[in-house]
Amino acid sequence: MTRRSPQNPEMIAGALKLLPARWAIAILVAAIAYVVLQPKLNQWFGWNLPSAAAMLGQEAPAAKSKQPPITKPDTAANTKLDTASSNKTAPPKPSNPKPAPQKPTLANGTDATSSKTSSGSKTSSNDSEDLKFRFLKPLGRDRYESPAGLIYTPGSEEGHRLKHIERHVSDQPNRPGSHGVFDGDMESFLTAIDDGYKRARGHAKGTKQREEEGMTVFEAPFDKPIGYLGGSEGARKGKPKLKRLRIVVRDKNLITAFPIQ
Amino acid sequence: MVLPYLIYVRTCPACGDGLCRVRVCTHQNKLAGCVVCDECESVWTDPAMSEKFTEGVDSYTASCPDCGRSLWEDTSHWADIQEVCLLGWYDKVKVART
Ligand SMILES: [Zn+2]
Ligand SMILES: [Zn+2]
């Protein structure tokens, strides 16, 4: 769409030529000052001054600057999480050593839930991540407790134990050796871990428990296959189904969990 | 940096699923190596894996046997082939393409 208005750049340049040199310089200085100060004034005072580009018809006027876009109203589930995950209003703190701006870590994803109105990056994939946290009780500082009392904390190479065990809901076919793959989503994986942990702690039939210098390794059988053997070893063996779950903890802190043979 | 290969010593004897890999800490510009399970985070001081290291900043974080700092801080990373050679461990590891 072509716009012919007094704001058109050529007309402004023409008008400047008709002015005395001093006036032209003064107007230019004022225009430059406006270009420089406009975003800052909007930021400091919450104003909505249009950018120079917008005034010249080259860009749509900015919406309320620096005001994060509001995504959508809270659902019942989100409201529940919001209440539980404290009354933070700011975006997640940068405690994660490897923040992923586009796809937050699980822990940050939860924090993002509690600050939904201040984050414009919520996507449907993040919504699916929220599902996992219906199961876990936030304890603050990115720590979560499962109904069976397992604690999921920041740590590991991935930044959070939840992110670490997420490696086991998909195969890594090029990985040397075996890689236990849970056949299901994270929410059902967390449920299975809790189930196995409770039974193994209670010394239920078929479970095992051993101490390993600083950690405890639990094993629990399941009636049906819960996953399959992945990695290069799994590929070589034709991905046999697995019906046992191994859970490694330090005190009550979950370190890792994966299906085994 | 993601390497196109993975250097490891063996499958983890502690958890049975992880790979015991060479990790280096460069805190204070010093190259310190250790072996860490990428699954259960057990730490050994060298590829012989006879001595497990369980101390450090806290008992829930894999820590450098040399300086005690977390092995997941920016000062640490999985060793590349040059670093494994510098540590004198090249003949004690396997290299797999990923
Ligand atoms: Zn291990
Ligand atoms: Zn160190």
Labels describing this entry:
heterodimer; A: 261 residues; 3-stranded antiparallel β-sheet; elongated; B: mainly beta; binds zinc ion
Any overview of this molecule?
The complex is a heterodimer of chains A (261) and B (98). Chain A is an alpha+beta fold and 261 residues long. Chain A has 2 domains: 9-65, no CATH class; 77-260, no CATH class. Chain A has 9 helices and 10 strands. Chain A has helices spanning 9-18, 21-45, 52-55, 76-84, 106-114, 124-132, 161-165, 186-201, 231-236, and strands spanning 137-140, 143-145, 151-152, 179-182, 208-212, 215-221, 227-230, 241-242, 244-250, 253-260. A 4-stranded antiparallel sheet of chain A has the order 5-6-9-10. A 3-stranded antiparallel sheet of chain A has the order 1-2-3, with no helix packed on it. In chain A, strands 4-7-8 form a 3-stranded antiparallel sheet. Chain A is elongated and about 95 Å long. By secondary structure, chain B is mainly beta. Chain B has one domain (12-97). In chain B, 6% of the residues lie in helices and 32% in strands. Chain B has one helix at residues 81-86, and strands at 5-11, 19-25, 32-37, 43-44, 52-53, 76-78, 94-97. In chain B, strands 1, 2, 3, 4, 5, 6 and 7 form a 7-stranded antiparallel sheet that branches. Chain B is globular and about 35 Å long. The model of chain B has no long low-confidence stretch (mean pLDDT 94). At the A-B interface, strand 9 and strand 10 of A face strand 1 and strand 7 of B. Bound molecules: zinc ion (ZN) (2 copies). Residues 12, 14-15, 18, 37, 39-40, 42 of chain B line the site of one zinc ion (ZN).
